[in-house]
Amino acid sequence: MKKIAVPSTVPTNPEKWSSSSKQSYIYESAPTEYKDRHYKCSRCKEESVYTAEAQQEAYEIRKAYIWQTRKLCINCYRARVDLEKSLDECRQLWQSEKNKIHADSQFLIRWLGYLEAYVQYGGKSDKANIKMLKTLIDDLKV
Fold first, then answer.
1. CA 137 to CA 142: how far, in whole Å?
2. pLDDT tens digits, residue range 63-119?
3. What three-state secondary structure class fits 37?
4. Distances from the Cα of 70 to the Cαs of 48, 57, 79, 117, 128, in angstroms?
5. What angle do CA 20, 121, 22 make, to 5 degrees?
6. Cβ–Cβ contacts within 10 Å for residue 123, how many?
7. Cβ contacts of residue 47 below 8 Å, gap of 6+?
């Protein structure tokens, strides 16, 4: 016999929402509880759940905008966060060591890979840096 999952609920406290969420029309008629929301990951297409507890943490503690919702499953979200950290490290290294690493093909290829992968996780394409890196990589091949 298949067990049916009962959605969890958590009471809302709109007074703890961000100021921008309080300016939204939903604030005047705020729901009394968060409910688990089922969705399909936009990247891997796996079925996922945005739990009531996670919504409460996002909206009332981290102060995310109330209309923000999940698009990535937890595994894809973690991969995106890792990519963002790697991209930040590359940008910082580029800023501080540009003269040394502009001819480091391994670094340039790795950074390009991070930039191209980031788009697959819903990130905005950094067309300027992608173009620059492709040009630098092509120049090193000559």
1. 9
2. 999 998 899 999 999 999 999 999 999 999 999 999 999 999 999 999 999 999 999
3. strand
4. 9, 13, 14, 19, 28
5. 10
6. 15
7. 38, 39, 40, 41
